[in-house]
Design a protein that fits this description.
The complex is a heterodimer of chains A (about 700) and B (about 210).
Chain A: E1 3-6, E2 9-12, H1 19-25, E3 49-52, E4 59-60, E5 71-73, H2 77-92, H3 108-116, E6 139-141, H4 151-160, E7 165-168, E8 175-178, H5 191-195, E9 201-203, E10 216-221, E11 230-236, E12 239-245, H6 258-262, E13 276-279, E14 282-285, H7 288-299, E15 307-311, H8 317-330, E16 334-336, E17 366-370, H9 374-377, H10 379-390, E18 395-399, E19 410-413, H11 416-423, H12 428-435, E20 439-444, H13 445-448, H14 453-466, E21 470-471, E22 476-477, E23 479-482, H15 488-494, H16 505-514, E24 519-523, E25 537-542, H17 547-551, E26 554-557, E27 566-569, E28 575-578, H18 591-601, H19 611-621, H20 662-666, H21 668-677
Parallel strand pairs in A: 1-5, 15-16, 15-24, 17-18, 17-20, 18-19, 20-23, 24-25, 25-26
Antiparallel strand pairs in A: 1-2, 3-4, 3-5, 6-9, 7-8, 10-11, 11-12, 13-14, 13-26, 21-22, 27-28
Helix pairs in contact in A: 2-3, 8-18, 8-19, 11-14
Chain B: H1 19-29, H2 41-51, H3 58-68, H4 72-81, E1 93-98, H5 101-105, H6 108-119, E2 125-126, E3 132-137, E4 149-151, E5 154-157, H7 161-172, E6 180-181
Parallel strand pairs in B: 1-3, 5-6
Antiparallel strand pairs in B: 1-4, 2-3, 4-5
Helix pairs in contact in B: 1-2, 2-3, 3-4, 6-7
The chains are: A alpha/beta (about 700), B alpha/beta (about 210).
Bound molecules: iron/sulfur cluster and FE2/S2 (inorganic) cluster (2 copies).
One FE2/S2 (inorganic) cluster binds near residues 98, 103 and 139 of chain B.
Chain lengths: ~700, ~210
């Protein structure tokens, strides 16, 4: 291992590290613009210059491999002077318009200029001006500020896999553009805003909204998909203004999807801010007590088997456990958290988890995607698969729609037929899986939410056995279910599924239609065929006036994910806590508290006084809730339904990435994205296998 | 005229290689290891430019990108970086006047003036009949024979106002003037004959006499 001296400290580093990385190891800070640890090395900004003994010229530390015996100085007057020189050059064409720049206050260039800038300019020629570019509804560009670090180009090409940004022209005429000024068609495009070290790429929806120092910053969890990305929510005066990623190496690294980042304006629109009651066919605002009384009047004396509950996609575990307990108290066995009807078993736990884990994708040797389009269902996981593909030696097969996933793959078939063939070993891809030490398969909801979902799952289970997806010797578990709903795994962990003799969601809808079910409790469930609920009395508890609220007879206004301290379990089975950023609007309340109050009105009080009581109940129902932020390995078991698989092709449940839940449907920004991108990412490209 | 973006997006005629060019392109690609076909991008852009009347249209860029299986923006980066790829239509003859130091010291101002006057256009313009495009270029790396003008693929060296005019007139008349030195030099030997190494029977250092190659 190379040993080098940095500012008098001897440090031994892994071979292959750069001088800059070696400096970081001992907390010596090196200024940089183009270097980014998750992107390839460009070495073009020259801000990271350091002095090396024996070298007549300064070296770019980000591009220089650390070698044995190097003596590096990062803090001498000479080094300072070099950096001042670089900074002066960078600022020659920079407009210095910090007062009107959205990056102000969180700008690398501004910060570095504080240390290495000169207090006046010596450049008296004309500065160059650059035409602003169109990059879509999310990214605002002021290209005169660009310092040509090429981070955005490398991100789009390497991580996002949409090589659409480039630098055209040369020298002074170099400009960063998207080809033909097209919108950047990536579900991860917003990350270039964070990457851009200056104010050239900023957030369009957030333009001129706030200054960073005015914001209160809260670390929490995203619920736009089942990934559980770690986010930081910035708010001012009780209003969520923007969402940024937070580093979590095991989940989202430092990226988030555009929906996670930009759907937050949906939190301000279409909100349910007071209880409503349907009177003479019209929803009328009422006080909490009136709403509860109406429910009590309808439910009291009703046998439990005539009541049913469905939990939606954004619901937190606290609310689900409270509703579950309330349903038990009312004597109803009809509950389901799989509102899409996916054939997910509640047992064993490993049957519905992404067992390989998100970070584990990096060690997979081959991959089979079944009925899923991860690019639309979980862009962060798709980026991981792409990262693994880029590392080489990774064969990917797809059964299902042949969409552009940003990496090449073998398209093995459209529907269950190909799946059965592989499971029977009658397809060459079975050999690919068997030959790998660490094969993984990803089963999407598209494969499960169909009539033959149970049979498909059984076929998958068989494939797991015949193709060696589990390797007991090494402990490798390559079986993965990719969820699309943040609430789903939590619901299954709690057993929010039909109890003994209970109906699942399809039977609940059919029962309501037939009049057997008289009361339906929709806990944030908006993706049901509402028109088929017949004459049932529908209680909708949730935060947005979406499909559920429109059908409801009583509306109980709840809190969105930024408005409550809540527990979510991601697709890997990782328990995480969301933190309240601001209070729910108007009369709306935290969801478990609403259920607690309702239980009083129904004279079957839930024994919860504080959040801690609900959390204790969660741990009691399932001990995994006692171990937040970690992966608890789930034991393997048998699962899968019976029957024959059909022949219809698999389709992804997500047609439009930008609108998948009540919040994103209420978001103006997501509506703009839908207009700009609808159907575009489906365009086939040269990467198709 | 910024090289960036100009001509992009305009409605342009579709483009595909002629059969002969497909063969040529394949031969170029074959020079590189498998999977490295993108290395052939510059050669293919050149073929495309020649076939397309001296400039690269957007369909031409896209065709080359598809031919090589690379993103169009990467091809656009190459095509806009190098000044010898033209991104806007040009005349049948591309007259490129070097105005860098050596040529300037040897009278490029006058040469440029002759071009302007004879062709009736300024730098960056194309004559109305589409016959000529006049450009100002940086050092053409033939300074010893300055002043230099490159017309299409040929260098015209040791120019004077007179010879420049003759060349342009000949081109306009549809003839092909003789490229190279216009004062009879073979390459870059001294104008007034040899000044050193004149000995003849020397020790291996004998210079080649003028006129032989
Ligand atoms: S736009 Fe920003 S990220 Fe992209 S090259 Fe310019 S400065 Fe770098
Ligand atoms: S950070 Fe090293 S050259 Fe930019
Ligand atoms: S200066 Fe004209 S060729 Fe070099």
């Amino acid at each position: 291992m190379p040993k080098l001296t940095i500012d008098g400290t001897v440090v031994e580093v892994e071979p292959g590290l750069t001088v800059l990385q070696a400096c970081e190891l001992i907390d010596v800070e090196i200024p940089r613009f183009c270097y980014h640890e998750r992107l390839s090395i460009a070495g073009n900004c020259r801000m990271c210059l350091v002095a090396m003994e024996g070298s007549p010229k300064p070296i770019a530390s980000c591009a220089m491999p650390a070698a044995d015996g190097m003596v590096i100085h990062t803090n001498t007057p000479e080094v300072h002077k070099m950096r001042e020189g670089v900074m002066e050059f960078l600022l020659i064409n920079h407009p210095l318009d910090c007062p009107i720049c959205d990056q102000g206050g969180e700008c690398d260039l501004q910060d570095q200029a504080l240390f290495y800038g000169f207090d006046r300019g010596r450049y008296i020629e004309n500065k160059r001006a650059v035409r602003d570019k169109y990059m879509g509804p999310l990214i605002k560009t002021i290209m005169t500020r660009c310092i040509h670090c090429t981070r955005c180009i490398r991100f789009a090409t390497e991580v996002a896999g949409v090589p659409e940004i480039g630098a055209i022209g040369r020298g002074e005429n170099m400009e960063v553009v998207t080809y033909l000024d097209q919108a950047l068609a990536s579900e991860l495009s917003g990350n270039v805003i964070d990457l851009c070290p200056v104010g050239a790429l900023t957030s369009k929806p957030y333009a001129f909204v706030a200054r960073p120092w005015e914001l209160s910053k809260t670390e929490t969890i995203d619920v736009m998909d089942a990934v559980g990305s770690n986010i930081r929510v910035d708010a001012r005066g009780g209003e969520v203004l923007r969402v940024l990623p937070r580093l979590n190496e095991e989940i989202n690294e430092e990226w988030i999807s555009d929906k996670s980042r930009f759907a937050c304006d949906g939190l301000r629109r279409q909100r349910l801010d007071r209880p409503y009651l349907r009177v003479d066919g019209k929803l009328r605002p009422v006080r909490w007590q009136e709403a509860f009384d109406a429910i009590a009047a309808r439910i009291k004396n009703l046998p439990g088997r005539k009541i049913a509950a469905v939990a939606g996609d954004l619901v937190d575990c606290e609310a689900m456990v409270a509703l579950q307990d309330l349903m038990a108290a009312l004597g109803s066995p009809h509950l389901d958290c799989r509102q899409d009807g996916a054939a997910l078993p509640a047992e064993p736990r490993s049957a519905y988890l992404f067992n390989t884990t998100i970070a584990g994708i990096a060690s997979a040797g081959a991959c089979l995607l079944i009925g899923t389009n991860p690019r639309r269902e979980a862009p962060i996981i798709n980026a991981r698969i792409r990262e693994r593909y880029r590392a080489g030696g990774f064969q990917i097969g797809v059964i299902g729609p042949a969409d552009d996933l940003t990496y090449p793959y073998d398209h093995l078939g459209d529907g269950p037929e190909a799946l059965v063939k592989i499971a029977d070993g009658a397809h060459p891809f079975a050999e690919v899986l068997r030959a790998s030490e660490t094969p993984m398969i990803v089963v999407g909801q598209g494969a499960l939410l169909r009539g033959d979902g149970g049979a498909v799952l059984a076929a998958v289970r068989k494939l797991v056995d015949t193709c060696g997806i589990l390797r007991p010797d090494s402990g490798w578990n390559g079986f993965n279910v990719l969820h699309t709903a943040a609430a789903r795994v939590g619901g299954l962990d709690l057993g929010f599924v039909p109890q003994r003799g209970g109906k699942d969601v399809a039977a609940i809808v059919a029962g309501a239609e037939a009049g057997e079910i008289e009361v339906v409790y929709l806990l944030g469930a908006d993706e049901l065929p509402m028109e088929r609920l017949g004459g049932a009395f529908v209680i909708y508890q949730g935060h947005h006036g979406d499909a559920g609220a429109h059908r409801a007879d009583v509306i109980l206004p709840g809190a969105a994910y930024t408005e409550k301290d809540a527990t979510y379990v991601n697709t890997e089975g990782r328990v995480q806590f969301a933190t309240r950023v601001c209070y729910p609007p108007g009369d709306a309340r935290e969801d478990w508290a609403i259920l607690r109050a309702l239980s009083d009105a129904l004279e079957c009080s839930l024994p919860f006084e504080r959040l801690a009581d609900v959390r204790a109940r969660l741990r009691e129902v399932n001990p995994v809730f006692a171990e937040p932020d970690v992966i608890v390995r789930a034991p393997w078991g048998t699962f899968g339904g019976t029957g024959e698989v059909g022949s219809e092709p698999f389709v992804s449940p997500i047609e439009n990435f930008y609108m998948t839940n009540a919040i994103s449907r209420a978001s103006v920004t997501m509506a703009e994205c839908t207009r700009a991108f609808a159907g575009k990412s489906e365009k086939k490209t040269g990467t198709h296998g | 005229m910024s090289p960036a973006g100009d001509g992009m997006g305009a409605a342009e005629a579709p483009f595909s290689f002629s059969e002969a060019n497909v063969e040529r392109a394949k031969a170029v690609i074959a020079k590189y290891p498998d999977g490295r076909q993108q290395s052939a991008v510059m050669a293919l852009l050149d073929l495309a430019q020649r076939q397309n009347g001296g400039w690269l249209s957007q369909p031409a860029l896209e065709y080359v990108a598809e031919f090589l299986g690379m993103p169009t923006i990467r091809v656009a980066e190459v095509a806009t970086f190098y000044t010898m790829y033209n991104r806007t239509p040009i005349g049948r003859h591309h007259v490129q006047v070097c105005t860098n130091l050596s040529c300037w010291l040897r009278g490029s101002d006058e040469i440029a003036a002759v071009c302007r006057e004879t062709l009736g256009i300024d730098f960056g313009q194309t004559s109305a009949d589409g016959a000529f495009t006049l450009s100002e270029v940086e050092c053409l790396c033939a300074c010893v024979n300055a002043p230099i003008v490159q017309i299409d693929d040929d260098f015209y060296e040791d120019l004077t106002a007179e010879s420049m005019r003759t060349i342009l007139d000949a081109l306009r008349a549809g003839q092909t003037p003789k490229p190279g030195s216009q004062i009879g030099r073979t390459s870059s030997e001294p104008m007034g004959g040899l000044t050193t190494l004149t000995g003849g029977d020397g020790d291996g250092g004998e210079a080649r006499p003028t006129g032989e190659s």
